[in-house]
Write a structure and sequence with these properties.
Blueprint lengths: L11 H7 L3 H4 L15 E8 L3 H13 L5 E4 L15 E3 L5 H6 L4 H25 L10 E5 L2 H16 L8 E3 L1 H7 L7 E5 L2 E3 L2 H14 L3 E3 L4 E5 L2 E4 L2 E10 L15 E11 L4 H7 L6 E4 L4 E4 L5 E9 L14 H13 L8 E12 L5 E5 L4 E5 L6 H16 L11 E2 L11 H15 L3
């Protein structure tokens, strides 16, 4: 990560938050933390985590029950975690849907879930417009490219499955090499899968704007207030105890640092970099002028930012002991590898400076399925495990969790990711590290 833009009036802490990603660094508003929770409190609902899932849950709770006393607790600042570090694709493409589509017992509910995911992309744009959230929303689709016949067959198979269950072109369309090259000039692409149901966003602006919207609705957001332990009806923090009728967990990968939750989700790191702004010729050369998101089947994904940069990411690693890594600066080995991947994929960009590099942790459940859960007796709820495609699903999860908490019998609460039991625990170390890294290597050489 390059040094944050110099803002002399900001504290060292605010400058630290800016240094975590280009998305946070480029926000105009102050990143000075809101007040912490300085004494014990009592409320109706307390939510742990001010990322997308926690903020959307608070948003829909207050929209359906304005009189509820809702508190959100955040260890750092809103948008500090995956919400402020991800690739910026608000997408209807979701690997998690395929097992549910193939299973006859969950197929009908999975089709409904996929339709809602498609509808969620423009809905987020509409909510942002109504709430005055300028997250640079650009609804121009996603193209996933294949560099060899095996990858092309995988994309063709995915298009066939989606068409079979009610999502043919133009929802998801398999394209040959010529049609692919008209959309994106990725070196070596021989085919692709295109969906119009995708928007590019500035994710930190979305998270920070959503935090402002929930505060305006009456939600109390306490930053720099770290949850230490969850108990029935209580969240013990480093600042005091928050007592509530209902306790909700929405901390994604960071739950691995919460007592009693160390093996619930595995933090898998992705990596990102951003170039300097491109001139118009370069934008046209690589096919990025419309801010359409792209992804390569092997690795690499990105889009053109609102100020004309390429934001480029790659899936990362698991670190022993569920460690969440902080340093992914410009000089690291991983960033040098990503820079070369970017230039190999788009040779015209070679020589364009890279100005920022960072990383972030996403949450992977042991069964690789995202979930929404509520124990009605204990009044404990949790939504998470979105892995690499969380921007749109986190909105859906937040609304579903709000429905469960409020006891609403909606279509949403019958979707296949609403579960009665939490995902199985990950193995203890070193088995966890061996399993995750081994499966990652196997899938690279022998994909399904």
């Amino acid at each position: 990560m390059s040094e944050a833009i110099d803002r002399p009036t900001e504290s060292d802490l605010a400058r630290f938050y800016r240094s975590q990603s280009f998305w946070l660094d480029s926000i105009e508003e102050s990143l000075e933390p809101l007040p912490s929770m300085e004494e014990d409190l009592q409320c109706d609902i307390v939510i742990v985590g001010a990322g997308f899932t926690g903020l959307w849950t608070a948003y829909f709770l207050k929209r359906n029950a304005p009189d509820l006393d809702v508190v959100v607790l955040e260890k750092e600042i809103a948008g500090f975690g995956a919400a402020g570090r991800n690739g910026g694709a608000c997408s209807s493409w979701w690997d998690s849907i395929f097992p549910w589509l193939r299973d006859p017992e969950t197929r009908e509910a999975a089709v409904n879930l996929q339709r809602r995911l498609i509808d969620t992309v423009p809905r987020i744009g509409e909510i942002c417009a109504s709430e005055g959230i300028d997250c640079h929303f650009a609804h121009n689709g996603l193209i996933m490219t294949a560099a060899n016949e095996r990858e092309a067959q995988q994309l063709s198979k995915a298009a066939h499955v989606l068409a079979k269950y009610g999502f043919p072109a133009p929802d998801y369309e398999y394209l040959d090499q010529a049609a692919t090259r008209e959309m994106v000039a990725t070196e070596g692409a021989i085919a692709s899968l295109f969906t119009p149901h995708n928007a590019a966003v500035q994710p930190a602006r979305l998270a920070r704007g959503l935090a402002g919207a929930v505060r305006a609705s009456g939600v109390k957001l306490f930053e720099r207030s770290a949850a230490v332990r969850l108990e029935q009806g209580r969240v013990v923090t480093d600042r005091g105890v928050a007592r509530a009728d209902t306790v909700l967990l929405a901390a994604e990968a960071y739950v691995s640092k919460l007592a009693g939750f160390e093996r619930q989700l595995a933090p898998i790191h992705s990596r990102m970099l951003v170039t300097a702004p491109l001139d118009e010729t370069l934008k046209e050369t690589i096919g990025g002028s419309r801010r359409r998101c792209f992804a390569m089947s092997g690795d690499g994904y990105g889009h053109l930012t609102a100020d004309g940069r390429i934001a480029f990411g790659a899936r990362g690693s698991y670190y022993f002991g569920s460690r969440i890594r902080k340093n992914f600066g410009l000089g690291t080995r991983e960033t040098k590898w990503m820079r070369e991947l970017l230039f190999r994929s788009f040779p015209a960009l070679r020589g364009v400076p890279v100005t920022h590099a960072w990383g972030g942790a996403m949450a992977l459940p042991r069964n690789e399925k995202p979930f929404v859960f509520l124990d009605g007796k204990r009044r404990f709820g949790w939504a998470g495990g979105h892995a690499s495609a969380g921007v749109a699903p986190s909105c859906m999860a937040g609304e579903t969790l709000a429905d469960l908490v409020l006891g609403l019998d909606t279509v949403r609460v019958h979707e296949p990711w609403v579960v009665n039991e939490l995902p199985p625990l990950w193995e203890p170390e070193p088995l966890r590290w061996l399993g995750i890294t081994g499966v990652k290597a196997w899938r690279r050489f022998f994909p399904a």
